Amino acid sequence: MTTSAIRLIIGLGNPGPQYETTRHNAGFWLADHLADDLGASFSMEKGFFAQVAKARFEGENVIIAKPTTFMNRSGQAAGALMRYYKLAPDQVLVLHDELDLMPGSVKLKRGGGHAGHNGLRDIQSAFSSSDFWRLRIGIGHPRTLGLAEPVIAFVLERPRADELKGIESVIDRCRAITPALLRGDFPQATNQLHEANRV
């Protein structure tokens, strides 16, 4: 299984101020930080159905995108960007919230299923492939957090203070491994990220 360096980063979330602080927008939060870290700023690109930030890293172009469609149509932007920049799925990193991980936990993964995540499902459909990288940002599940509410309501609410602290710590750790991802050094990125999980 060969790997390429990441050239397209797609943060997942829902557009609009009413969703900015919700759990489902954790991918947008990380995308904003990565753009800042790379000295890039977002601008609307209607042809890509996304806000796009164009950066350079060690002489290579890096694109960071936040789809302006709702979560379940994330593939529209992801597919348009991948085709335009002539990228392979394994050059794409998707940042998304993950119900199966608790706040404060994160996993880097290549390929696999969508586990019911509508954004991932639509990107897999647009790519005709699941062979892209994901940073899975733990937000917890209402059942594991002792909350009696449906998942659809949970993801569209603001995290509680202790949960937010955990998510923010994950975002910092993801920022720290981004240079390795942009160099294609996935073993280093994985070891660094998952070692932090055990601390």
Automatic annotation (TrEMBL):
Database matches in SUPFAM superfamilies: Peptidyl-tRNA hydrolase-like (SSF53178)
Gene Ontology MF, one: tRNA binding
First-listed, main subcellular location of the protein, grouped into a coarse class: cytoplasm
InterPro entries named among the record's database cross-references: Pept_tRNA_hydro, Pept_tRNA_hydro_CS, Pept_tRNA_hydro_sf
Enzyme Commission number, as recorded: 3.1.1.29
CDD domains named in the record: PTH
Pfam families: Pept_tRNA_hydro
Alphabetical GO biological process terms: protein quality control for misfolded or incompletely synthesized proteins; rescue of stalled ribosome
Domain of life: Bacteria
Record-annotated site: Discriminates between blocked and unblocked aminoacyl-tRNA: N14
Active site feature: H24
Family indicated by similarity: Belongs to the PTH family.
PANTHER family: PEPTIDYL-TRNA HYDROLASE
Subunit structure: Monomer.
Protein name (Swiss-Prot/TrEMBL): Peptidyl-tRNA hydrolase
Organism: Allopusillimonas soli
Lineage per the UniProt record: Bacteria, Pseudomonadati, Pseudomonadota, Betaproteobacteria, Burkholderiales
